[in-house]
């Protein structure tokens, strides 16, 4: 079967993120961009499935401007066979992205779609879930373990109460969590090989998707600065200070 | 152990700084058919680059004509130069010496410029590989340098392979270019092995610490280049500050301090912070925020300290050899010239042999020769150095003698019998409050479970001799607070917080016993400087 892996170009997790002075967004000028860490875990899992002989092809997909080709090439260097760029200059919200992804699914007919559980820039955790609703297939989100059993999969999910294991019929969408695996390092010779692997570019319009922005982002602000604290001499002063601040 | 995979290139360049990238670009311009690769230990080009920087554009015009139509992202023409002599509260404007007249020069972020140069290099089909550390030299059967070995990745703290283990490949090349920057670890080994420094003075270094600030609107005057000397340093410690005003309300502010300082209790980081709290500078910075910070050693020895730069199969270029012009505090144009020259030599001869002689005849070394006596003049203290520097400048370095350069590791005075000067340092209020707060802005990252990359060759010395003689100066000269002496019951023990390391190399240089050996951590580790 084919496995589709979605990857997103995000601000690298090491970057000290800064809000633009006018609150319109985050400063990405000259800032390092990387593959979303959860998407690397998703790709690693897909590669392991292929290496175990349960898939023939791993395809990485990303939506964005031509800059995201850098992340697609990283995916190819890790071991993916082919890459698809959904070309758009718009910033896509999860619903539009899920619609675009569905179009790619219709073209490629994969047996499994693996996504990261959320992107580290917007932390939405919505794309996988919206995609299954549109595709009308099963979902297994926050996966920390994945075992394929022919035409179904047993997925252990990380949930608030602990872990739960469910079985889903394939094709399905799996979104991965941190503990699923540790992504491999990229070997230097593979970076060279990746340059020759196919990378197809399809525009959003050619996929037949129109962008709908049903969420408007109003304003960005950094967390409130912590005020300097004061040291109190005794409980009596503590109580007085709390009263002064209207806290008791 | 399995045999390593091998990749072959005509030229392998270690380090994607201005020297290495200039060399790569020129090689492809001269001989496009050459297979050229650049490997770089930082995760992204520019992430380990830290510099003021005011650059002379000459080599850029030579290498990339037309660059002015498409300049690097941060590139501000210099408008004005100011030199200040500071006292604790006051200041006096000094006349600008010729080396500090910056008309025609540009204030840049060298990190952003290297990323920009890397894109140009890739267009010429140079293979650039960030995130891979060259950890060892590969030698051919006849003892020549034959390439490098990439460090293994996915190794745990005890040296055992983890699940993610990936063996480093070997890169074979008839020519290896070492452009690692100041105190490169491979250059250090090769200089020793091939005795490249036997006819030159020891290298002397400075530590350069820098912060990039976004200040309140109106406080930055784009194009203004300021330098200060005097307070907070005493007259026997070489150094001073730089303040470069950029666009978008940004100021690059930094402090350079000679590592030949004598006071074992001295903390260069604190001197930097003191300088920022001088009334003239405090007024610029208050209300602003720090965008990025970091540190890197600087080579100050110049002409006398240049080792032989060629050996069988390899060349050492740029600040790995020590081409920076310290009276100008500029090294980028020198590094680029050196890289261009190396490329032209290799394109013409296909061998390392003969490069050193060419370098000695070139503009790079002529420039260093002219100013060779200025730095060592300051061994006699600030005022005598200042006067001698003026004489050397007026005579354009034509006086017949050459002063020698002394090593830094032997300059520290022992505690016993030494009285530190009265520094007149103040209580300060600008961020960062201490080194840990500062290192946050370097965004330095090392995977915890990997071998410690700071090797202490004789650890007993720390708790027996060093604590008595010098009070463990590593706990003070490291700008990232990597080294700490912690109480273990009744005894003290050295704790190495290697995750904080910003790869400045100061410890490898200044340690009085020379028992600290810096090696490469896992590729991709280290600082993530932005626009530095």
Task: Summarize this structure briefly.
The complex is a heterodimer of chains A (about 250) and B (about 525). By secondary structure, chain A is α/β, with parallel strands linked by helices.
Your description of this structure?
The complex is a heterodimer of chains A (248) and B (532). Chain A is of the alpha/beta class and 248 residues long. Chain A has one domain (2-212): HUPs (Rossmann fold, 3-Layer(aba) Sandwich). Chain A contains seven helices and eleven strands. In chain A, the strands form two sheets. Chain A has a nine-stranded mixed β-sheet, sandwiched between helices. Chain A has a two-stranded antiparallel sheet with strand order 2-3. In chain A, strand 4, helix 2 (69-78) and strand 5 (82-87) form a beta-alpha-beta unit. The N and C termini of chain A lie far apart (64 Å). Chain B is an alpha+beta fold and 532 residues long. Chain B has 15 helices and 26 strands. Chain B is globular and about 60 Å long. Among the domains of chain B are: 6-67 and 112-200 and 302-370, FAD/NAD(P)-binding domain (3-Layer(bba) Sandwich); 435-518, 2-Layer Sandwich (Alpha-Beta Plaits), CATH 3.30.70.20. The two termini of chain B are 40 Å apart. In chain B, a hairpin with a 5-residue loop joins strand 10 (134-139) and strand 11. In chain B, the strands form seven sheets. A seven-stranded mixed β-sheet of chain B has the order 7-6-17-18-19-16-20. A six-stranded mixed β-sheet of chain B has the order 9-3-2-15-22-21, with helices on one face. In chain B, strands 1-14-11-10 form a four-stranded mixed β-sheet, with no helix packed on it. In chain B, helix 1 (18-30) runs parallel beside helix 3 (110-123) and helix 1 runs parallel beside helix 7 (332-349). Chain A binds chain B through residues 12, 14-16, 18, 29-32, 182-189, 191-192, and chain B through 5, 7, 43-44, 47, 73-74, 109, 112, 115, 127, 129, 131-132, 150, 153-154, 163-164, 166, 169, 171, 291-292, 440-441, 443, 445, 528, 530-531.
């Amino acid at each position: 079967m084919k496995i589709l892996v979605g990857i997103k170009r995000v601000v690298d997790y090491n970057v000290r993120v800064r809000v633009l002075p006018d609150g319109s967004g985050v400063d990405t000028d000259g800032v390092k961009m990387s593959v979303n860490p959860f998407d690397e875990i998703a790709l690693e899992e897909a590669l392991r499935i292929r290496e175990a002989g349960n898939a023939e092809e791993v395809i990485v997909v990303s939506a964005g401007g031509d800059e995201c080709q850098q992340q697609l090439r990283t995916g190819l260097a890790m071991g993916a066979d082919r890459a698809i760029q959904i070309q758009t200059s718009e910033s896509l919200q999860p619903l539009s992205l899920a619609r675009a992804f569905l179009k790619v699914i219709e073209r490629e007919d994969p047996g499994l779609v693996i996504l990261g559980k959320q992107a580290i820039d917007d932390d939405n955790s919505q794309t996988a879930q919206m995609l299954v609703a549109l595709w009308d297939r099963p979902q297994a989100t926050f996966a920390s373990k994945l075992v394929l059993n022919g035409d179904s999969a047993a997925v252990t999910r990380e949930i608030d109460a602990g872990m739960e294991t469910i079985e889903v019929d394939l094709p399905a969408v799996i979104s991965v969590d941190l503990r699923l695996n540790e992504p491999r390092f990229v070997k230097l010779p593979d970076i060279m090989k990746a340059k020759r692997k196919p990378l197809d570019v399809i525009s959003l319009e050619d996929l037949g998707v129109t962008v709908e922005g049903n969420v408007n982002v109003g304003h960005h602000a950094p967390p409130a600065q912590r005020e300097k604290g004061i040291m109190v001499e005794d409980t009596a002063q503590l109580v007085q200070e709390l009263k002064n601040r209207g806290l008791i | 152990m399995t045999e390593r995979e091998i990749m072959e290139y005509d030229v392998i360049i270690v380090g994607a700084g201005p020297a290495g990238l200039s060399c790569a670009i020129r090689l492809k311009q001269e001989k496009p058919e050459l297979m050229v690769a650049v490997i770089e230990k930082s995760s992204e080009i520019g992430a380990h680059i830290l510099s003021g920087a005011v650059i002379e554009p000459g080599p850029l015009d030579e290498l990339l004509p037309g660059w002015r139509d498409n300049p690097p992202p941060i590139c501000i023409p210099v408008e004005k130069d100011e030199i200040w002599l500071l006292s604790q509260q006051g200041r006096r404007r000094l006349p600008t010496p010729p080396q500090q007249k910056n008309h025609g020069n540009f204030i840049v972020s060298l990190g952003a410029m290297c990323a920009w140069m890397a894109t140009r290099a890739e267009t010429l089909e140079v293979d650039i590989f960030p995130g891979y550390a060259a950890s060892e030299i590969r030698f051919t059967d006849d003892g020549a340098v034959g390439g490098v070995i990439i460090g293994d990745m996915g190794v745990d703290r005890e040296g055992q392979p983890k699940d993610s283990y990936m063996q480093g490949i070997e890169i074979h090349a008839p020519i290896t270019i070492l452009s690692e920057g100041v105190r490169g670890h491979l250059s250090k080994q090769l200089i020793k092995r091939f005795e490249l420094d036997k006819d030159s003075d020891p290298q002397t270094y400075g530590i350069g610490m820098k912060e990039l600030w976004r200040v309140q609107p109106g406080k930055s005057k784009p194009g203004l280049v300021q330098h200060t000397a005097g307070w907070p340093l005493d007259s026997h410690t070489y150094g001073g500050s730089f303040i470069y005003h950029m666009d978008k309300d940004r100021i690059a502010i930094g402090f350079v301090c000679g590592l030949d300082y004598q006071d074992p209790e001295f903390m260069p980081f604190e001197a930097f912070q003191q300088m920022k709290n001088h009334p003239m500078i405090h007024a610029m910075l208050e209300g602003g925020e720090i965008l990025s910070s970091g540190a890197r050693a600087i080579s100050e020895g110049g002409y006398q300290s240049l080792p032989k730069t060629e050996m069988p199969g390899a060349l050492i270029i740029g600040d790995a050899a020590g081409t920076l012009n310290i009276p100008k505090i500029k090294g980028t144009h020198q590094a680029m010239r050196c890289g261009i020259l190396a490329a032209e030599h290799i394109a013409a001869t296909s061998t390392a042999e003969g490069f050193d002689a060419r370098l000695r005849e070139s503009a790079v070394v002529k420039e260093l020769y002219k100013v060779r006596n200025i730095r060592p003049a300051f061994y006699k203290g600030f005022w005598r150095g200042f006067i001698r520097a003026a004489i050397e400048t007026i005579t354009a370095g034509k006086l017949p003698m050459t002063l020698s350069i002394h090593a830094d590791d032997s300059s520290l005075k022992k505690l016993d019998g030494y009285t530190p000067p009265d520094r007149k340092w103040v209580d300060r209020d600008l961020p960062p409050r201490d080194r840990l707060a500062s290192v946050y802005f370097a965004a330095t990252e090392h995977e915890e479970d990997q071998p410690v990359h700071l090797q202490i060759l004789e650890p007993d010395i720390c708790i027996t001799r060093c604590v008595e003689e010098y009070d463990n100066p590593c706990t003070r000269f490291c700008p990232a607070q990597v080294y700490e002496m912690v109480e273990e019951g009744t005894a003290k023990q050295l704790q190495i917080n290697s995750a904080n390391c910003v790869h400045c190399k100061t410890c490898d240089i200044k340690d009085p016993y020379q028992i600290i050996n810096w090696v490469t951590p896992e590729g991709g580790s280290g600082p993530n400087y932005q626009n530095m």
